[in-house]
Specification:
This protein is of the alpha/beta class. The protein contains 22 helices and twelve strands. It has helices at residues 35-46, 50-89, 99-146, 151-156, 159-166, 168-201, 203-210, 213-250, 252-257, 261-287, 289-313, 319-341, 343-360, 436-443, 466-469, 487-492, 500-509, 513-517, 536-550, 566-580, 615-621, 624-633; strands at 397-404, 413-420, 425-429, 451-456, 459-460, 473-476, 485-486, 526-527, 554-558, 584-588, 600-605, 608-613.
Length: 638
C-alpha cells in the first residue's frame, strides 16, 4: 500500500519524491554471507520433494551404470576381435573372429545405450517438475513477505531491486537448479562408478590417474573462492540496473519534460558499466577452471598411456582392457571438469538465493492484538464490524504524547496530543512537511510509534492487528492508484463481495457514474497499469467511490480533491459531506476553502499541533492559521 507522504524537508527521500537512483555503484566486491548456510536453506526448499528427488537419484544411478558398463562391454568386443585376429595371424587352424559373440556384445551395448537414454530423459523430466515447484514455493514466500514488511523497507529500497529479487533471482535459481542438480548427481555417481571399474581393470593405472585429483580440487577451490564475491556483486548490480530502468520508465514524462534524457542515459550507463564489469570478471575467473582442469587431466592421461603401454607389453593387461581404461580415464576426468565448470553456475545461484533470503529475513511488522471489538471482525473484505457484533466502533480517536521520526534521530512528530470525538470531521492543515500525512500514516499503523500511543475508542491500536484496524478505516490518497482490471473491479476493491448495484451506487455518490457510463465499455472498461488511460481527476473519482463502498467508520481524505476541477469538487464535497455524516473523518487539505465547515481544524507545524478550533475561531485568533488563510486568498479582515 503506498504511503501518504509528507513532501517536506523532514520526510524520507521517497516521501519527498526524491529519486533513489541506483542503490549504489558497486565499487568493490561485496563479501558474501555464509554460502553453506545459504545452500542449507536452499536445500530446505527441496526437502518437501525428497521423494521425487530420490527418484531422480535412482534414475541418475541407473543411467550412469548403463553409461559406465558400455566401455567395458566395448572392450570385450575389442578383446574378441583381437584374439581372433591374433590366432589367424599365428596360423592357428580354424581360427576366426567369433561373429556370434560380437553380435551378442553389440546387442548388449545397444540395450545399455537405450536404457541410458530412457533413464536420462525421465531424470530430466522429473527434475524439471521438482525445480519449478521449488521456484513456485520460493516465489510464493517472497510474495507473502511483501505484505509483511513495513513501509520503511520500501522507502529505503529501489522498486526495481526489490522486483529483481522476485523475478530475476528466482528465475536464476530455478533454471540453474535444474541443470546443477541433474549434472551434479550424474557426475558424482559417474565418478564413483568409473573409479570402481578402473580399479577392477588395473589398480596400478588407477593410482596414476588419481595423482592429479588433489591438484584438480585445489585449483577449483582456489578459483571459486575468488569468484564468489564477484557473483554476489553481479547480482546486486543487476538489481541496481533494474531499479534504474524502472525509475527511468516510471518517470519518463518528467525526464522528457525537463530535458534530462542525457543525464538519465549517463546514470544508466554507469550502472550498466558496473554490471558489465562484475559480469565479465566473474565469468572470466570461473572460465579458467575448465582449461586448468583439462591441462591437469591431460597430464594424468599421458601418464596412464605410458604405464598402460608398459603393462600391455608385459602381458599384465589386455589391449581391450587398456582401451576400456582410457575411456574410463576420460570419463573419470569429465565429471571433475563438469563439476568445476558448474562452479560459476552454482555461485550465481547461491548469490541469487542469498539475495532472496536477505529479503525473507527482513524484520516484519508485528501483528499482536485481538482487534478493536475484542474478536475477529470477519473476513478481510468485511467493511466495518460484522452485524452480529454488539458494540460497533464509535470512532473516538486519541493521540497521546506521540513521538515519531522516519529516520532515527530526526523527529517528525514531537510529544503530540489531541482527541477527536466520535463522528467529528477534523481538518488537518499546515505547511508542507509539517507532519500532516504522517499523522494518518501512524493512525493506519503504516509505521510504529517512537513513543506515546494512539487509541480508538480507548483501545491502543498497537494491540490491534493491522488487518483488523484497517477494516475500519477508508482512505483516499492524494495520488490515486488503480490496478490493472476493470473500473468495476477497482471500485469493488473497497469491499469484498460487493454487488454490482452497490458498486454503481458508490460511483453515483462519488459523482463518477456519469463519466464511467460515457466510456466505451462502461463499468467494464479495462484500466491500464496505474490507470494511464484515465485522467487524474477520473482516477481520483474512482478511488473516492472505492472509499464510499467500504462503509468504514473512519475516513481519511488526503488531498482527495486535488486532481478534480472546481465544479466536480463542489459536487464531491457535497457527496463527502453525506458519507462523513456520523463517521469520524480526517481531511488533509492545502486549499483551506475546502475545510471551512469542518467541526474542528488542527493546525500542525513542525510536528506539533499549534492551534485548533473552528474556521471562524482560528481566523478570529489571528494566529498561524489566519496567516495561512490570508496568504492563500490574499485578503485581510476575514
Amino acid at each position: 500500500m503506498p504511503r501518504m507522504a509528507d513532501k517536506g524537508p523532514l520526510a524520507s527521500p521517497a516521501a519527498r519524491g526524491v529519486s533513489h537512483g541506483p542503490m549504489r555503484l558497486l565499487g568493490t566486491p561485496q563479501k558474501p554471507k555464509n554460502a553453506r548456510g545459504t545452500s542449507r536453506r536452499l536445500l530446505g526448499y527441496l526437502r518437501p520433494h525428497a521423494g521425487w528427488f530420490a527418484l531422480v537419484v535412482a534414475l541418475s544411478v541407473a543411467a550412469t551404470v548403463f553409461n559406465i558398463l558400455a566401455p567395458r562391454v566395448l572392450g570385450d568386443a575389442t578383446n574378441v576381435v583381437y584374439e581372433g585376429v591374433s590366432q589367424m595371424a599365428t596360423g592357428v587352424e580354424g581360427a576366426s573372429v567369433d561373429l556370434h559373440a560380437i553380435h551378442l556384445i553389440l546387442t548388449e551395448l545397444a540395450l545399455l545405450y537405450i536404457g541410458y537414454a530412457l533413464c536420462f530423459y525421465l531424470q530430466r523430466f522429473v527434475m524439471v517438475r521438482v525445480t519449478q515447484r521449488v521456484a513456485f514455493d520460493l516465489r510464493r514466500d517472497l510474495e507473502h513477505k511483501f505484505n509483511l514488511l513495513p513501509l520503511s523497507y520500501y522507502d529505503a529500497h529501489a522498486t526495481g531491486d526489490v522486483l529483481s529479487r522476485v523475478t530475476n533471482d528466482v528465475d536464476s535459481i530455478a533454471s540453474t537448479l535444474q541443470e546443477v542438480l541433474t549434472q551434479l548427481t550424474a557426475a558424482v555417481v559417474t565418478l564413483v562408478g568409473v573409479l570402481v571399474m578402473m580399479l577392477l581393470i588395473s589398480p596400478a593405472m588407477t593410482l596414476i590417474a588419481l595423482v592429479t585429483l588433489p591438484l584438480s580440487i585445489l585449483a577449483t577451490r582456489g578459483i571459486a573462492r575468488r569468484s564468489q564475491p564477484l557473483f554476489k556483486s553481479r547480482q546486486d548490480a543487476l538489481g541496481a540496473l533494474n531499479g534504474q530502468i524502472e525509475e527511468a520508465y516510471s518517470g519518463h514524462a518528467v525526464v522528457t519534460a525537463f530535458a534530462q534524457e542525457q543525464a538519465a542515459q549517463q546514470r544508466f550507463d554507469r550502472v550498466n558499466e558496473e554490471y558489465y564489469r562484475y559480469g565479465w570478471r566473474s565469468m572470466f575467473i570461473t572460465g579458467i577452471i575448465r582449461p586448468a582442469l583439462t591441462f591437469i587431466g591431460n597430464l594424468g592421461y599421458v601418464g596412464v598411456c605410458v604405464a598402460g603401454t608398459a603393462l600391455a607389453v608385459q602381458g599384465v593387461v589386455a589391449p581391450g582392457d587398456i582401451q576400456a581404461f582410457l575411456q574410463y580415464m576420460r570419463r573419470f576426468s569429465s565429471p571433475i571438469t563438469r563439476i568445476a565448470s558448474m562452479a560459476n553456475t552454482i555461485q550465481s545461484t547461491l548469490a541469487a538465493a542469498e539475495r532472496a533470503f536477505e529479503f525473507l529475513d527482513e524484520p516484519e511488522m508485528d501483528e499482536d492484538g485481538e482487534g478493536l471489538t475484542g474478536r475477529d471482525s470477519g473476513s478481510p473484505g468485511d467493511a466495518g464490524v460484522c452485524a452480529d457484533v454488539a458494540s460497533p466502533v464509535r470512532g473516538e480517536v486519541s493521540f497521546e504524547h506521540v513521538d515519531f521520526g522516519y529516520v532515527p534521530g530526526v523527529p517528525v512528530i514531537r510529544d503530540l496530543s489531541f482527541t477527536v470525538g466520535a463522528g467529528q470531521t477534523v481538518a488537518i492543515v499546515g505547511p508542507t512537511g509539517a507532519g500532516k500525512s504522517t499523522l494518518m500514516n501512524l493512525l493506519m499503523r503504516f509505521y510504529d510509534l517512537g513513543g506515546g500511543r494512539i487509541t480508538i475508542d480507548g483501545v491502543d491500536i498497537a494491540t490491534v492487528p493491522r488487518r483488523h484496524l484497517r477494516r475500519h478505516v477508508a482512505m483516499v490518497l492524494q495520488d490515486p492508484w488503480l490496478f490493472s482490471g476493470s473500473i468495476r473491479e477497482n471500485i469493488a476493491y473497497g469491499r469484498e463481495g460487493a454487488t454490482d448495484a452497490e458498486v454503481v451506487q458508490a460511483a453515483r455518490v462519488a459523482h463518477a457514474d456519469h463519466f464511467i457510463r460515457t466510456l466505451p465499455a462502461g463499468y467494464d472498461t479495462r484500466v491500464s497499469e496505474e490507470g494511464g488511460n484515465l485522467s487524474a481527476g477520473q482516477r481520483q473519482l474512482v478511488t473516492i467511490a472505492r472509499a464510499v463502498l467500504s462503509s468504514a467508520e473512519l475516513l481519511v481524505l488526503d488531498e482527495a480533491t486535488s486532481s478534480i476541477d472546481s465544479r466536480t469538487e463542489r459536487l464531491v464535497q457535497q457527496a463527502m459531506a453525506e458519507i462523513m455524516e456520523g463517521r469520524t473523518s480526517f481531511v488533509i487539505a492545502h486549499r483551506l476553502s475546502t475545510i471551512r465547515d469542518a467541526d474542528r481544524i488542527l493546525v500542525v507545524r513542525d510536528g506539533a499541533v499549534v492551534e485548533q478550533g473552528t474556521h471562524a475561531q482560528l481566523l478570529e485568533e489571528g494566529g498561524f492559521y489566519a496567516e495561512l488563510y490570508r496568504s492563500q486568498f490574499a485578503v485581510t479582515g476575514r
